[in-house]
């Protein structure tokens, strides 16, 4: 397994999560170092999204610990974890019907900075709103959404919704950004923009954990991969080592036909 220089930014120990009798995550241990871009891989249903959900507080953990920057966050509510500097995006972002793109981005700022600020009246509140508008404007420009900023967010294409999801996550200036399949279903032109944007964020110091099936993306972007199989971590290695890792091959080839289909995605 690849060594992470200590202290790790994120450290997960003995994490377990079940839904009823379905033990989705079992005894998961992982460490993410500052400045890494880590790909989280595994066949469909292996527990990748659940791992993101438990780390970010969207699902309660059953057992184990999640430490971020030396602090235990494993039982904090999602909004508190965001407040600590951990943001995430969703596989299928859903957008409110009646809010424009820029309003959605600005609302994410108040979600990140606490609602008291937005309840305040007067100059402080106006300053906070203007700061959120300026930041949303800059990020929408960076993620090529300026031309749709006044449209209803629900009218965006799937790819544009993913970009807006990233913008919302960035409104709180996270140190750790966790992305759930950021390029799935995205047009190749937009995909390349997302790749460049993620690499740029990493150059600026952000640590990234990315759930992805697309091996071209993994090779282009990630410095390390962690592979889940049926709720267990079975490998942590460089992207170019995946195709010769027995346990990775077994994870993808060990199941039925549908898993063999997925193996084409992991074979370089
Ligand atoms: N809220 C939930 N309630 C019940 N079962 C759930 C819930 N969330 C996930 N699961 C189950 O947990 C298992 C793992 O799902 P998860 O979405 O984490 O896998 P994944 O590796 O992200 O899959 P994919 O690559 O298809 O997105 C599946 O069997 C799924 O049905």
Name the descriptors.
268 residues, alpha/beta, Rossmann fold, six-stranded mixed beta sheet, four-stranded antiparallel beta sheet, 10 strands, globular, disordered C terminus, binds adenosine-5'-triphosphate, Branched-chain amino acid transport system ATP-binding protein, ABC_AA/LPS_Transport, ATP-binding, cell membrane, AAA+_ATPase
Whole-Å distance between the termini? 20 Å
The multimeric state of the shown protein is single chain
CATH C-level class is Alpha Beta
CATH topology: Rossmann fold
Which ranges are low-confidence, i.e. pLDDT below 50, for 5 or more consecutive residues? 256-268
The number of helical elements comes to 10
Q: What is the average of the pLDDT values?
A: 87
Binned strand content: 15-25%
Dominant shape: globular
Based on DSSP secondary structure assignment, what is the total number of beta strands? 10
Q: How many discrete domains?
A: 1
Bound molecules: adenosine-5'-triphosphate
Find the CATH superfamily. P-loop containing nucleotide triphosphate hydrolases
User: Which structural category fits the helices and strands?
Assistant: alpha/beta
């Amino acid at each position: 397994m690849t060594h992470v220089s200590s202290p790790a930014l994120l450290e997960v120990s003995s994490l377990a999560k079940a839904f009823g009798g379905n033990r989705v995550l079992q005894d998961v241990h992982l460490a993410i170092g500052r400045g890494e871009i880590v790909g989280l891989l595994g066949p469909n249903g292996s527990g990748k999204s659940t791992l993101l959900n438990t780390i970010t507080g969207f699902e309660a953990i059953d057992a184990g610990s999640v430490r971020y920057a030396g602090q235990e966050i494993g039982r904090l509510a999602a909004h508190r974890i965001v407040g600590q500097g951990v943001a995430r995006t969703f596989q299928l972002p859903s957008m409110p019907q009646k809010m424009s793109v820029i309003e959605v981005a600005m609302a994410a700022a108040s979600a990140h900075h606490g609602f008291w600020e937005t309840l305040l009246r007067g100059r402080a509140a106006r300053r906070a709103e203007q700061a959120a508008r300026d930041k949303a404007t800059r990020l929408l420009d960076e993620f090529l959404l300026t031309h749709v900023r006044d449209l209803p967010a629900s009218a965006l294409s799937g790819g544009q919704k993913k970009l807006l999801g990233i913008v919302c996550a960035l409104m709180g200036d996270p140190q750790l950004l966790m992305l759930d399949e950021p390029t799935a279903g995205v047009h190749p032109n937009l995909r390349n923009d997302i790749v460049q944007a993620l690499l740029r964020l990493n150059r600026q110091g952000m640590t990234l954990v990315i759930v992805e099936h697309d091996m071209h993306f993994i090779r282009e972007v990630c410095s390390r991969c962690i592979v889940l199989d049926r709720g267990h971590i079975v490998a942590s290695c460089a992207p170019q080592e995946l195709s010769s890792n027995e346990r990775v091959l077994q994870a993808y080839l060990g199941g039925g036909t549908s898993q063999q289909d997925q193996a084409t995605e992991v074979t370089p």
